[in-house]
User: Fold these one by one.
Assistant:
Number 1:
Amino acid sequence: MTADVIPAAGPPAVPPTAARRGYLAVEYTLLFFGAVLGYVLAGSPGSPIPPLLLLAGLAAGYLWRRPDFDRQSWWGRAALRAEWLPMLRLWTVAAVLAVGALAVLAPDRLFTLPRQSPLLWGAIVLFYPLFSVYPQELIFRAFLMHRYAPLFGSGRWLLAASAVAFGFVHLIFGNVLSVLATLAGGWLFARRYQRTGSLLVASVEHALYGLLVFTVGLGDFFYHGAA
């Protein structure tokens, strides 16, 4: 699929009423900002993975019951063949910049995790895409961009809504870098999902950047224990 707007995130045939838009605005704010802020003010208790998986399950249940959600979005493997090369090119540039910046600014950080804890790094490589990346993409891309398309439309405002919510949730890690980096990443992943309609494509791209962060030596900015 090469269209700019995916069917799963398209606006409904009947324009929403003002009351419906108002309800969705309140719901979006409470769910993606109020709940996160409450979690942060409570001291970010416990691992975020269990609530992430719970919310992903609820989002999946909602989308499964929606007749206007494109079921092909759950996987969308065919789209990966068209997207993997441009994704890899952009990722390569980011990887070179990240390694170069750390080599100059903080050489002691460079490749700390694979050098000092190779087994932990290997576990992250195996389990992070499954238990963190795909659930996040399910919530912040598939669910958010379908549920709130009547509020934000199907273009840049919807991309911004996805990116801002995705960046804000990383406030739980207690540092500005994670928020700013995931704000940019959220726009990139949302745009990729919008173009392809494939959670697999968005998840692969998300996993590439996440694993880059953990590999080069910036993982403590995106790890709950660092908060």
Number 2:
Amino acid sequence: MSPTPSPARPPSARTPFAHALSGLLDVLLPADCAGCGTERTQLCPACRHTLATARPGPTLLPWAHAAAPYADPVRQLLLAHKERGALRLAGPLGEALGRAVRSALGARAGAAPLLLVPMPSARAAVRARGHDPTLRLAGAAARSLRRAGLDARAAPLLRHARPVADQTGLNAAERRRNLHGALTVLPRARRGLAGRQPVLVDDLVTTGASLAEAARALADAGLPARAAATVAATAVRPEG
């Protein structure tokens, strides 16, 4: 009789070693394009061009700008980075996020050193994925902004203060009620941040309820964020 197999680890629950190995294999054995499926390249020229040439603009929240609509191939690239650990996508996605930051700030982009504040990920989600995708994108965006000549850094200042219900199926008002008071600022938040302009960043904005709650938490801590930026948005404000 064959031995009883040990329980399999869920594919998303990666150890740090497994996640590092996945990144190495991604370099040595490139997967198909995460955006469209083109073989032997994680990001094909066409999808890279779509991401790089997307025109940032305001979302349903006028102070929150997104680099692109949440549609393929951008949607597939975000999912590959977030859920499948396609870490090399953080660079081009971060560049898109950096452009959204500059769009959201407009003329204020160079007025003060920037502090990119990523939306916090739940600890359980970080453990399951093996990385914090939003923090990684924030760091990539800060590097992109520095290459453009702006003083920018990323810092995870926010954390969850209480559990929240699953947002699936909730409308905008229900999401706001569900999230109110759910975030707080880490005690060390004010250290070394004097004079920096906080900008909230995330991978995706839908109703804007999460960004609004994050802005409330920062304002209550004396760190008002007057702008936010995301890679993608499910809906944008009409022009004109």
Number 3:
Amino acid sequence: MSPNYVVVPQWQGSVSPRAMRLVDGAEAIQGDLPSSVTFPVDVPAEAGDALDTGIHRFSALLTVRDRQLAVLRAGSEPVLTIGGDCGVSFGAVEHASRRHPGDIALVWFDAHPDLHTSESSQSGGFGGMVLRAILGDGVDGLALDADARLSPDRVVLAGVRDIDPAEDVYITEQGIPLVPVEDFGTPAAVVAAVKRTGAAHVYVHIDLDVLDPATIVGLSNIYPFGLAVEGLTAAITALRAEFSLAGATIAGFAPSSPEAAIDDLPSILRIISAITR
């Protein structure tokens, strides 16, 4: 895979007190990417308005989505999107889905399922709603339409371990498979789950909080008992061996300082290598 890299230093989808660090994280990763195939998206500095949607900073999120899609459409496939918060996967998966209609499975490597709607979310942060929006549920402008949305039977939740009650109900009702951290001794479980979707292409979303916080320090959200880098990269490598890669996202890097970013970058570059080699 010789990817294009699209860097989206969006912070508006996060409600973490560390949200602004996501900009620094995206820029730190960008510094180690080949400049000739790296395309930054201009993210507005302002927070934006909810506009009575129940989604904090909704207007800014719409602006970023439009700008991100413009960059994606101008480039070539495949694309590795670098966030920013998890909301950057919304436009990235939309783009990939339109390129491969009806033939994408989405593996959601994340500590959280991000399956809230504006009605069920207590925080109002789009980062906690983005997967549900990819499935077509949400507010106009931040919910995929029938031509691009994925169906729940094409989603695999991997390493998810912090599930709110409303999300749990939805996961159970829709029968979305979960591959827990303890099943990552080998990649077999996640590969088998994707095979059951019937899709030939896979999109890989990685929120770095899927990793154990002992493995990586610069996280915007911290939840214990996550994956080791070795388990994550082995799973990515196995998925790439079995499926065509429709695209990928790395999100959630929020270093506390440039020095702290340097400490975490080797682990992040190992993940990038697993996606792109």
Number 4:
Amino acid sequence: MPTIQVPYVLTCSRPVVSALIELGLLSRIHDHRNLQSKVGKAVDGRSINKVLDVLRDRFDEVEELPAGMEPLARCAEKSRAKLKVILELLFKGHLSNVVRLDGQVGFAAIHLDPEEIKSVLESPPVGVSEDAYFLIH
């Protein structure tokens, strides 16, 4: 799938797609630094489906959001954490207070607790990237 279409499929922003590629959750068709062609920059559809499957299968669906739950971008603002760090915590299972809003798909459905993110980042779990350890508040 052309990279430009991935945000529409995952219902997220381009920075989220970039972070997912950096984290290795989305795979490019050809994986090397100096990609020249649009085909080489395309994202493997199987990796997109895996991300959507994780979002759908791992997080409980709710009809109404619990108090304090925010979408991904708002959580990044409130917790003052990089999207990449939040996504890493999310996909590695370090965040437990995550829900999926009924009637939405992809990242548009995902809502998190910014206070939990702050709490986790005060003492980052073992195995997360250096970005989480050197996060400046």
